[in-house]
Amino acid sequence: MRRIVTVLLIIIMLLNNIPRGTSRRAFNTLHFRKVSTDFGRKYASNYAARISEDNKAINMTLDLVRDLTVDLWLKVNITQRETKNRYKNIFAYNMNLCQLIGKAKGINVFTIWLQNIYRYTNMPMSCPIEEGQYYWRDLRPDKDSIPAFILTGHFRIDALFYMKDWDNDMLTNTTMFVYIKMK
Ligand SMILES: *[C@@H]1O[C@H](CO)[C@@H](O)[C@H](O)[C@H]1NC(C)=O
Ligand SMILES: *[C@@H]1O[C@H](CO)[C@@H](O)[C@H](O)[C@H]1NC(C)=O
Ligand SMILES: *[C@@H]1O[C@H](CO)[C@@H](O)[C@H](O)[C@H]1NC(C)=O
Q: Span of the secretion signal (predicted)?
């Protein structure tokens, strides 16, 4: 149970959108400040992210050149900046995305969250993920999507998508710096 809750929190934080009114404290603003990307050339021909001019949204594209016939894993680290070069750990988690998606069958809170997360993308909600051009367009956090315990500040989010069964080969590596201002 703790595991599921942790996974959900990470997903909410990272990707956004839980149904309105389910979190107690809304945030004022989330600004994407910087994003850097890298990808495995064996699996993709391009992976890029672009922050909107107002810093409130982000577009991402991934050109997958090969079917991913094994499970896709996600390793996430979220840290908050304390001083210029010191970060405090908020979350570190490693999850099998295919298994997670597979479990979200039927109508429950879990499915609703996942559906919200998938609202901005053409990614399939099932595995295997086939070769093709994928995107996230105008991805922006919903105002109720940041957990209440988060404090105003600068955050760093590291997200590594990889294939555990293919020698832990990297699909994409993303580092995002965001500023969150809570009410
Ligand atoms: C993101 O994509 C949307 C929809 O295609 C487009 O209108 C917008 O200009 C793009 N923003 C950036 C920063 O590229
Ligand atoms: C997450 O943090 C751990 C320890 O702080 C580090 O070993 C690991 O490389 C980090 N992973 C990512 C994806 O940044
Ligand atoms: C991912 O990117 C971060 C930041 O650039 C880097 O520290 C880390 O080593 C990279 N991880 C992999 C597996 O390439």
A: 1-23
